[in-house]
């Protein structure tokens, strides 16, 4: 029987690359959850792909989407929590409203709790062994000025992953750093980041892009897809980088 993987934020960037790999390289069913359906996601039309439009901050809608997908494919074997936002780029002491911070955490943290709680019963029943991959960031262990909400939400994500690793020994949970990836988020940083970031930090992102050194979504996406199916128990609760020695077996040649 084909494995079934849930992917949030599946319509573009890393999520779209992961979805393609799961369908075409790993022969998996994919429950693609996205706030909107892009032409690129629509073009992947397949019996193995169930696309569900859903705002991940809507607790009822997200839980229902996961349950619907599980019923459609008779179970869930993996959960890839990729949906996220960078907004607002701000400093802790500026005049950014607290509501903007709360909205950020609704997307980047509380949606993870909702999705995990909804998926756990199915992951426990997976004959392959259930797995969760959290889309983390180096920001989780740094304090990049101008990224207050993002730094904090990714640190909270890693903590959630560590706790799951302890509480749910039968489900393998991994937080992955995908690197500096050529996505819309990087474009946003180059476009508006100068107003809130330190000059040297901002220049680093501009220079990496100009030098053609951004990671391709397809490269880190392969690692993510593979981990959702094959991550070993030794990685459970861990925060690892896509290009680390631990992830070498999961990178595409």
Automatic annotation (TrEMBL):
InterPro entries: KR_dom, NAD(P)-bd_dom_sf, Sc_DH/Rdtase_CS, SDR_fam. This is Ketoreductase domain-containing protein. Belongs to the short-chain dehydrogenases/reductases (SDR) family. Pfam families: adh_short. One of its GO terms (molecular function) is oxidoreductase activity, acting on NAD(P)H, oxygen as acceptor. It comes from Cyclocybe aegerita. Residues 3-183 form the Ketoreductase domain. It comes from the Eukaryota. The keyword Transmembrane does not apply. Keywords: NADP, Oxidoreductase.
